[in-house]
Automatic annotation (TrEMBL):
PROSITE patterns: FBOX. One of its GO terms (cellular component) is SCF ubiquitin ligase complex. CDD domains: F-box_FBXL18 (cd22128). The lineage of its organism: Eukaryota, Metazoa, Chordata, Craniata, Vertebrata. Residues 13-60 form the F-box domain. This is FXL18 protein. Pfam families: F-box-like, LRR_FBXL18. InterPro entries: F-box-like_dom_sf, F-box_dom, FBXL18_F-box, FBXL18_LRR, LRR_dom_sf. It comes from the Eukaryota. GO terms for biological process: SCF-dependent proteasomal ubiquitin-dependent protein catabolic process.
Length: 705
């Protein structure tokens, strides 16, 4: 490549080294730090100097450098350790724990992220004892962690830490009691109710963990709970101190709980104290707290930038009056999560049915008040527009010109007139269940947009919405009744609920409208019943050249993958695609599919979830050999356990040596041992791609550096 590059430079008369230092530094900023220090700087004197520039070595990120191994990290930290002020090793699950010992070379570290790295309490103590300038820390607390093993020097370092992110896999306070100056505390509770041996775990803390956390300087409190009763019990212990004395400077209080998290007397006291003593800028509470407490109306806000009322029964009238400042100016709000908030666009929640139309005046007030919204989530609810001209949900949302990410239910994007004038096409009348396969013949599809009915497309409200949100980077269109076949801690779901009646007409033309989003980076489509050929996917592949993440689930008929041909054509154009997740019954992962997927030269992670799905082992092996960047391959199909295990072992045996971060899980979807397999998946992959969920406005923007 270097030789060919030199010949091109000679012929064109352009020499890369003639560019200014500023331009070269900008180019080098896109190169992984390990390559800069260990390879690029050895090419010439000029690059040797530039590669060690402070702008490139001040902050080092290894979190997505899947090719880095322990030897490279050791050499990197030895060469530039003293120059590093910010080190991010989040999710480097493949590095042995001994690699952490070399972090002591970075004497000037101010920020350190070790989330997803296995660190024992003794190693942590030794490392932190040398990092006297540390102010921001992220770690995991695993079974066996013992705070009594932390040295006095380590505790002295922790006493100066201002920001702490702690992921708990065992009931523990971790290092929180040692962090007496905390201003930001982020807690992720990932504790399982049962141990690997099958014993029930309890929320009591380990012996010697009774020290009280220090929250007096706290400004941001965030807690995210995985499903499970034990996580609720442990977080209550963290909240007990807050309920006794609420920090005066608290301005962000966020608790994300996926299941019912009952309000107690202690939490009522906490909310009461917050209502009397603080003014908030960000708020997220469990739905039971919002639904059952009258104290919420007394909470005061300063310049709120984030609200999440996910899965609560908050009515639109209450939302506008109490939280959106009575419909007045709220330009500070940039992120709003109303996922699963089924009554948020209705004046009252008492008598509303799922099929009722929304109150467009509520949405209009919301859009007018929060004109600077960048992230909006309206998924997991039925938001049906009325026939009133100009009051369609898509028409109102088109006024939000600053949107970067948007999540909508499928039934909200359909044209009301289209539903009234004609019934759904014949294929959509097929029951959305896993029944007998139905022969529908060979489908053909138009290869580009010009072959479609342009007049129909461009007159639709969804087409107009996509045209107005030109800078949108993330889009999710998810059926309001969709649920993934692979939940977190439960067996695979065998049947899915039918799509909303209003969603029956949403199909290929709506997907084609998405191709207008030139800067789209992440796309999720789930439960679009009227997909007949998938022709819109080809348009997206051609036009959305920045697409990095693609998730498709239950498109078209459930008994046949009608969009396979279009999907394979689409993949040939997705040169930037890094993550692909497919969830579809009867999916055939054969030679043709993997041959098309091999065109995605940047692909790093692949996840396929398919009840009764099949795979071709030789095709998978060939794909892995051709796509050198792939480090994650998860397939949950209908094949036998023997076939799955043999293929998984073959992939690991063939490619693990050259791909240190390789993570392979191939397992029957309906096998009783699935939950045990899932618990061994690295949290980075599990949270970002393997498990299906809406990610728009899931947490405040820039919550962690």
């Amino acid at each position: 490549e270097v030789v060919s590059g030199e010949s091109e430079e000679e012929s064109s008369g352009v020499n890369l080294m003639e560019f200014s230092d500023e331009i070269l530094l900008h180019i080098l900023s896109y190169v992984p730090c390990t390559d800069l220090v260990l390879n690029v700087r050895r090419t010439c004197r000029k690059l040797a100097t530039l590669c060690l520039d402070k702008s490139l070595t001040h902050a080092v990120g290894l979190q997505k450098d899947y090719k880095v191994n322990k030897d490279k990290v050791k050499q990197l930290l030895r060469d530039i350790g003293k120059e590093i002020y910010q080190l991010n090793m989040a999710g480097c699950y493949w590095l042995p724990s001994s690699t952490i010992d070399h972090v002591t070379q970075c004497k000037n570290l101010v920020k350190l992220n070790l989330s997803g790295c296995h660190v024992t309490s003794l190693r942590l103590s030794k490392m932190l004892s040398t990092l006297q300038h540390l102010r921001s820390l992220a770690i995991d607390v695993n079974p066996g962690f013992d705070a009594s093993q932390l040295s006095s020097e380590c505790k002295a370092t922790l006493s100066r830490v201002l920001e702490l992110k702690q992921t708990l896999y065992t009931p523990s306070y971790g290092v929180v009691p040692c962090c007496t100056s905390l201003e930001k505390l982020l807690l992720y509770f990932e504790i399982l109710d049962r141990s690997r041996e099958g014993f029930m775990l309890f929320g009591q803390l380990m012996v010697g963990e009774s020290n009280v956390p220090h929250y007096q300087n706290l400004r941001i409190f965030y807690a995210r709970l995985a499903p499970g009763y034990i996580n609720q019990e442990v977080v209550r212990l963290y909240l007990a101190v807050l309920s006794d004395r609420t920090p005066e400077n608290l301005h962000a209080f966020l608790i994300s709980a996926p299941t019912s998290f009952a309000e107690t007397e202690a939490t009522k006291n906490l909310l009461d104290s917050m209502a009397r003593n603080v003014r908030l800028d960000a708020l997220q509470l469990p739905r039971a707290w919002i639904n059952g407490s009258g104290l919420l109306q007394h909470l005061k806000f300063n310049n709120p930038f984030y609200f999440s009322f996910s899965r609560c029964t908050l009515s639109g009238g209450h939302l506008i009056q109490k939280f959106i400042n009575g419909g007045k100016d709220l330009k500070s709000l940039t992120s709003l999560n109303l996922s699963g908030c089924v009554y948020c666009l209705a004046p009252e929640s008492t008598f509303r049915r799922a099929e009722d139309d929304i109150d467009s005046s509520i949405l209009e007030s919301l859009v007018a008040s929060c004109c600077n919204l960048r992230h909006l989530n309206l998924s997991a609810a039925h938001h049906h527009s009325s026939e009133s001209i100009g009051n369609h949900l898509c028409q109102l949302l088109s006024r939000l010109k600053h949107l970067l990410s948007l999540a909508l239910p499928v039934c909200s994007i359909t044209d009301v007139a289209a539903n009234v004038e004609k019934p759904p096409a014949a294929p959509t009348l097929v029951p959305q269940t896993f029944g007998k396969k139905i022969r529908v013949g060979v489908q053909t599809y138009p290869r580009n947009l010009t072959d479609q009915t342009n007049q129909k497309l461009e007159s639709s409200v969804f087409w107009a919405l996509m045209g107005s949100l030109r800078f949108l980077e993330t889009l999710e269109v998810i059926g309001s009744s969709f649920s993934s076949a692979m939940p977190r801690n439960e067996p695979a779901i065998r049947n899915s609920l039918p799509p909303c009646v209003r969603a029956q007409s949403v199909g290929d033309s709506e997907v084609a409208a998405i191709s207008q989003l030139t800067y789209l980076q992440s796309l999720t489509l789930a439960q679009l019943p009227n997909i007949l050929t998938g022709s819109g996917l080809v348009n997206i592949g051609l036009q959305c050249q920045h697409l990095r993440t693609l998730s498709l689930a239950n498109l078209g008929m459930m008994g046949k993958v009608v969009y396979m041909s279009a999907l394979m054509d689409m993949l040939k154009h997705c040169k930037c695609l890094r993550d692909l997740r497919l969830e579809q019954p009867y999916f055939c992962a054969g030679a043709q599919f993997f041959q098309a997927l091999s065109h995605c030269s940047s692909l790093q992670r692949l996840c396929i979830v398919s009840r009764s799905g099949t795979l071709q082992s030789d095709a998978v092996m060939s794909f892995m050999a051709n796509c050198l960047e792939v480090i994650m391959c998860h397939m949950f199909m209908g094949e036998s356990l023997t076939v799955c295990k043999n293929l998984q072992q073959s992939i690991v045996r063939s490619f693990q040596a050259d791909r240190p971060a390789l993570n392979v899980v191939i397992f029957p979807l309906l096998h009783e041992g699935l939950t045990e397999v899932i618990r061994d998946v690295p949290m980075r992959h599990l949270d970002e791609i393997t498990l299906f969920k809406s990610r728009v406005a899931e947490e405040p923007p820039n919550l962690w550096w």
